[in-house]
Amino acid sequence: MAITRQDLETDRLRTSLCSTPVASALLPEEAFERSLRDALASRPDDCALHGDVWVFGYGSLIWNPMVVHTERQRATVHGYHRGFYLYSRINRGTWDNPGLVLGLDRGGCCHGMVFRIPSHMVEQEFRLLWRREMLTGAYHPRWLRIRTGTADGYGGPEQRALAFVMNREHEGYAGRLPDASVVERLRHAVGLYGPAREYLQQTLLGLATNGVDDPYLGRLWRQLQAHDAADAVHGHSDSDSGPADPPRPAGDEAPLPAPASPHETV
C-alpha cells in the first residue's frame, strides 16, 4: 500500500481504519481538531516570511514531504535529537509485531530539512500534515527554534518551524532502546507501507542527498547489513529485506540504501 496526497485530502487512511480493531488507537476527532487549531493559533509572526511558515522534516518528510512548498533548506533544531522512539503498529509494523519509526526527543540536536509553506495555504497544508502525522496522537506539534543554511547548524539565522516531537505519554513511545533491539524491529517488522527497514533506508538516502550525515542512523544501517551478510553465509535471508545495491558514500561508511517507493507517512 502507498499513500498519496489525494489519500490525505480524502482522509482515506483514517476512514479505512475506523472499522478495524485499531480504531481505538486513533486520535479522537475533537482532539485532532483542537491540536490543529492550537498550532495554527500559535504560529510565529516572522516579518521576513510574510506570513509563510516553515515545517521541519527529520524522517519521511525529508524524502516525501507531500505538502505544497515554495522553498526547502537544510536546517538544524537544537535541544532535540532524532531516534527510533515510536513503535509503528500500522505503517511499518503490526500490533503483534511492531516496527519502529523516528521521533524527535529531548537533548542534542537534529539536522534535517525545512519546507516553506505559503501563507494562503498554511491551514490547508497543515490539515494534510495532521492526517499524516497525528493519526494516533503520538507526537506533540511544536514551534521549535531552527537555524537554516549552514552545514553545522550554527551561524545561520534563527527562525521557528513546526515540528512533530515525541509524546512521551503515548502508549507507542519506545524510549531509548539499545541498538540490537532497534535493529531487530527494523529487520522483521512489516506494515501497511512495507518493511520497517525500508523506512531507515529511505531516510538515510534522503539525508545523504541533502548533504546530511547521521552517525546513529548510519550505525544502525551497518548493523542491518552485517545481519544480511550473516544470513547469506548461512544460506538464508530475511523475507522483509529491502533493496541491497545502493550507492556508496565517501569514507568508510557502509553503502547507503537504494531508493524504494516514495510514498510514506511517519
Automatic annotation (TrEMBL):
It is an enzyme of class 4 (lyase). SUPFAM superfamilies: Gamma-glutamyl cyclotransferase-like. InterPro entries: ChaC, GGCT-like, GGCT-like_sf. This is glutathione-specific gamma-glutamylcyclotransferase. Residues 230-266 are annotated as: Disordered. GO terms for molecular function: glutathione specific gamma-glutamylcyclotransferase activity. Keywords: Lyase. Residues 230-239 have a biased composition (Basic and acidic residues). Its EC number is 4.3.2.7.
